[in-house]
Write a structure and sequence with these properties.
The complex is a heterodimer of chains A (498) and B (501). Chain A is mainly alpha-helical and 498 residues long. Chain A has 20 helices and two strands. In chain A, strands 1-2 form a two-stranded antiparallel sheet. The longest helix of chain B has 33 residues, at 160-192. The radius of gyration of chain B is 22 Å and the shape is globular. Classes of the chains: A mainly alpha (498), B mainly alpha (501).
Chain lengths: 498, 501
């Protein structure tokens, strides 16, 4: 038992990785699905065990690869922050897998279904790897694994435009990864290390001599990661990718991929740079702040004018991600807590919304706004989930979204940015408009002919949806496992700041 | 019933309508059972709040904390006299409103009745939550639930006009509450370190006089439900809804929740004394006065009966705000009394308007000549409600104005005195002609009416009273309007307890 517990960090990555190989050898989609299901739940179990361990002790878990000592060997390092992110990613993966079978069977040709699950598992491997590793170059490797599998996932979409969307993301994603690796290269030249914690400890001493490359590295890292997390105005790949990917892929990516990129940004800013030099001397807060505010307003407005509901939610994602980056930019306990907890809250809410749309697509074959007329009465449970999660996006009190917004607003006021508090709440008004549009069409228009005989999807799809919808409400009232952990992580990060 | 603790009663008051909201759709197929669920739930809620009353009067203040989503920001209930009064008003009127709804919805063959009753029940649960909220967060939570649950009621008819009204309703109420009220709550939390309602307020010494005034503005305008100008547009727009909904909006829940929140925040967050010492709140007196007068003038020009009633509500709501802004204990008592008095009188007027629509299909005041003899119950009740609005004895409206005037004259604030006088005249000017028309004008033939009138058989057809549930409901509320004059003990006792600490 002890030996097994010791290996948890590496198992977190290995389980989905070997499952991916296994799934690639499956002939039938259902077998591959079973493999993915088991692997996803195993990954969740591992993440839970890790979280229990990490939050019980003040020290992070360190796991060294192949007996090489740090910083020579690759270190996996789990602290409060990434334990939280591991939980988020594996929860989303585990919850959507039961849903996936019917949705994938409907949307993807039978000979490609096993590939879908293989790519999903690889993507999961990559995301978990980025999160768990403590090595800058290892991050790059996992980033490539997750990106390459994501390109395939998107391209598996039914619509031919999925190929274009995938290609667009391929270009942008490659630039992002390249920028990241350039940044890592510069840091390696300056510090001679690839271990993130080690870089942090050496960076302070090197900063006097190598001021310029260190700042340049930060610029490359920031832009590279921000391309991945779709920070405005580097977000153009995201709406197309989300709109044309298969439903399950959209849910998974929207719930996890951007959050992992946000995690990486926090790691670089706080654990590496922030621990090495005075945080205020770095020119990142202001830039991030301005971009976040712009995204909140502009991306939300784009969502208002979108007639494809999947694209609409994709734009909303761009806006919501900026809440997280805003929290990073605020750099005080309340703000950062808000940013971190919004990773969880938005992951849950957005996954619920995309699951609901996936169910609509499963029954109606379209998610265009006009085709949703009167669907609220035909698919009552599905649309109920949509409404609840939509209220979460708006940030109605009693939902998860409100908790994030509360922390961010308090963070802004504590920092003395009074107008910002108003912008944060005002941007949620735009969400009222785009969610309200869907509700008006779905509930107050007469059902058209093609939705007349529609009903809620089968139980295997319904239950995950209802689960996430209920979680949106639960996390709005009981926050021990979301904001509680996030606050712990924020305290740890700020405690390490210079 | 007696085995229940006071805390249980508070929870029950919320839980009963919430359970009803779950049960109602289950009886979708058998309307009689469905309506029985509503009526039983309404009776139980009334029983619950009324059995809470003696406890509160004897000094018991039940309170509880259910959860704490953010440290210091709890989902908590705490009963105090003002909340008790509001809960009594809403809880008692839900029964009459339900009786009326059944008559109205069936009489007019309205579609989608199941979702109508569900939303209604949720709105009542939210109202109870607002009444018993123990802190600003809980108040805000149920305030938003109330907005969201009444939106489907406003858009009930699903016509383009109703949808437009729904958008105005939602954007104005959510908009003001998100952009102004929420920041105000956050700022209060940061400054005071607590969000709890406390006698005497929580902001004393935490913020300068100018800041206090600014914060008050955020609160007062952030509570769009109080319909202080310029955030009153949603109320006339929402008139497209079925009449029981208008009654709910105007009398039972929504606007009452608005002025209740304003009063509660002034008394329990700012503290009357704190505000009076700061002395920077004259603008609120002016804003409320302007709303009272302007809305009355607009009401004077409306021919549509429900529109006239709507603007009358806008004007009457600002009485409460004005009374609170006078910042004396007496005027605060007046404000609390007026919440109760306006509720019973205005619901009577709306019931009467709906009754006329159901029986005679008339919506314009110019069509009402001689209708009093065809619908004597309805129009008598209307007359009583109108007297209540004007504030004449023997109706409930008298006491509210009496205490407001006393409070204002005591502190020598002559502007509110003048405004209350002037608006009383205006109230009479737009309500009495309707009563006069109904009883003393000859019914004119349809062709001589203005272009706005329906020139069809409806205008002429012979009608009697509306269905009996409607008549029963409006007679009950008219009676209550009179009863509150002769027996104002309960609201008065609660209002005095509120300012007494």
């Amino acid at each position: 038992m002890m030996a097994f517990e010791h290996h948890l960090p590496i198992l977190q990555v290995l389980v989905p990785m070997f499952a991916a190989v296994l799934s690639a050898f499956c002939m039938r989609g259902t077998t591959a699905w079973a493999v993915a299901l088991v692997a996803s739940w195993a990954a969740l179990l591992i993440a839970v065990l890790l979280a229990i361990k990490v939050f019980a002790s003040p020290e992070p878990i360190s796991y060294v690869m192949g007996g090489w000592t740090v910083p020579i060997g690759i270190e996996y390092r789990v602290d409060r922050l990434n334990a939280f992110v591991l939980l988020l990613v594996t929860i989303i993966g585990a919850v959507i897998m039961p849903y996936a079978r019917k949705s994938v069977a409907k949307e993807i040709d039978s000979h490609q279904q096993a590939w879908f699950y293989t790519m999903y598992l690889l993507c999961l491997t990559g995301l978990l790897g980025i999160t768990v590793t403590g090595d800058a170059f290892n991050v790059f490797v996992f980033m490539e694994i997750s990106s390459l599998s994501t390109y395939v996932l998107i391209a598996l979409g039914r619509n031919r435009r999925a190929l274009l969307a995938s290609y667009q993301y391929l270009i942008v994603g490659t630039i992002g990864a390249t920028f990241y690796v350039i940044g890592v290269g510069l840091l390696y030249l300056v510090t001679g290390s690839l271990n993130l914690a080690d870089i942090a400890s050496r960076l302070g001493g090197a900063s006097a001599e190598f001021q310029r490359p260190i700042i340049a590295a930060l610029a490359f890292l920031t832009v590279g990661i921000c391309l991945k997390l779709a920070l405005f105005p580097l977000h153009v790949w995201l709406p197309n990718a989300y709109a044309h990917a298969p439903s399950v892929a959209t849910v998974f990516l929207a719930g996890t991929a951007t959050k992992v990129a946000v995690y990486l940004l926090i790691r670089i800013f706080y654990s590496v740079y922030g621990a090495a030099m005075p945080f205020t001397s770095l020119p990142v807060s202001e830039i991030l702040l301005v971009m976040s505010v712009a995204a909140m307003v502009l991306a939300s407005l784009s969502a208002v004018f979108e007639s494809d509901t999947k694209r609409m939610l994709a734009y909303s994602s761009v806006a919501q991600i900026s809440y997280m980056t805003l929290g990073i930019a605020l750099a005080n306990e309340s703000g950062l807590t808000g940013g971190i907890v919004h990773m969880m809250n938005h992951g849950v809410m957005k996954a619920a919304l995309f699951l609901a749309l996936g169910a609509v697509f499963f029954r109606v074959g379209s998610v265009r706004l006009d085709d949703l007329a009167g669907i609220g009465r035909k698919m009552p449970l599905t649309m109920a989930v949509f409404v609840v999660a939509g209220l979460g996006l708006i940030g109605v009190p009693g939902t998860a979204g409100f908790i994030s917004k509360w922390y961010l607003a308090v963070g802004a006021i504590e920092k003395g940015y009074w107008p910002l508090a108003f912008v944060i709440v005002a941007s949620s008004l735009i969400a009222v408009v785009y969610i309200g549009r869907v509700i008006e069409v779905a509930y107050f228009r007469e059902p058209s002919a093609n939705v007349a005989s529609t009903r809620d999807p089968p139980l295997s799809m319904l239950v995950p949806m209802l689960l996430l919808g209920a979680a949106t409400l639960y996390l709005g009232v009981y926050t021990e496992w979301s904001a509680g952990l996030a606050q712990d992580a924020a305290r740890m990060l700020l405690g390490g700041l210079k | 019933m007696f085995a229940l603790s006071p805390e249980d009663l508070v929870v029950l008051a919320l839980l009963i309508p919430a359970i009803a909201a779950v049960l109602i759709p289950l009886f979708h197929k058998s309307p009689n059972v469905r309506e029985a669920v509503t009526l039983v739930a309404a009776a139980l809620v009334a029983l619950t709040v009324w059995s809470l009353l003696p406890l509160v009067l004897s000094g018991i203040r039940p309170s509880m904390k259910l959860a704490e989503p953010v440290p210091g920001v709890a989902l908590a209930f705490a009963v105090e006299p003002l909340g008790m009064l509001f809960a009594l008003v809403a809880g008692s009127l839900w029964i009459v409103n339900s009786i009326y709804s059944i008559g109205y919805m069936r009489g007019n063959h309205e579609p989608r009745q199941t979702s109508f009753y569900v939303c209604f029940a949720i709105a009542i649960a939210a109202t109870m939550g607002i009444a018993f909220a123990g802190n600003l967060f809980t108040l805000f939570l149920f305030y938003e639930v109330l907005t969201l649950s009444t939106y489907p009621l406003v858009t009930h008819k699903a016509t383009p006009e109703a949808m437009r009204a729904g958008r105005v309703y939602l954007m104005l109420l959510i908009g003001t509450s998100m952009v102004l009220l929420l920041p105000a709550i956050v700022i209060t939390g940061v400054l005071a370190g607590t969000l709890d309602f406390k006698a005497g307020g929580i902001l004393d010494g935490k913020i300068g006089a100018a800041g206090l005034s600014l914060l008050l503005a955020l609160f007062v305008f952030g509570i769009g439900k109080a319909a202080l100008m310029p955030f009153h547009f949603w109320l006339p727009a929402a008139m497209v809804a079925p009449t029981p909904v208008s009654a709910l909006l105007h009398a039972v829940a929504v606007v009452k929740a608005g002025v209740f929140s304003v009063l509660k925040i002034i008394v329990y967050v700012f503290g009357i004394d704190t505000l009076a010492r700061a002395g920077t709140t004259d603008w609120l007196v002016w804003a409320a006065s302007a709303t009272v007068i302007i809305a009355s003038l607009v009401a004077l020009r409306q021919d549509n009966l429900k529109k006239r009633l709507a603007y009358s509500t806008v004007s009457q709501l600002s009485y409460v705000i004005l009374a609170a802004a006078i910042l004396t204990p007496l005027s605060a008592i007046g404000a609390a009394m007026h919440i109760a008095a306006h509720a019973v009188a205005k619901i009577t007027l709306f019931f009467a308007a709906g009754s006329i629509y159901t029986a005679a299909h008339k919506t314009e005041i110019s069509q009402l000549d001689g209708i009093g003899w065809k619908m004597p119950w309805t129009m008598t009740a209307f007359a009583i409600g109108a007297l209540g609005m004007i504030g004449l004895p023997p109706t409930a409206g008298f006491f509210g104005k009496w205490f407001m005037l006393q409070g204002a004259t005591q502190t020598g604030q002559w502007l509110p005195v003048a405004v209350i006088m002037a608006s009383t005249v205006l109230n009479a000017a737009y309500f009495l002609p309707i009563v006069f028309r109904a009883f003393f004008a000859e019914a004119r033939p349809a062709y001589s009416l203005g272009a706005a009138a329906n020139v069809d058989s409806d205008a002429q057809h012979d009608h009697g009273e509306a269905p009996w549930p409607i008549v029963l409901a409006l007679s009950l509320t008219a009676l209550a309007t009179l009863a509150l004059f002769f027996a104002p003990d309960v609201p008065l006792a609660l209002a005095k307890l509120m300012v007494g600490g």
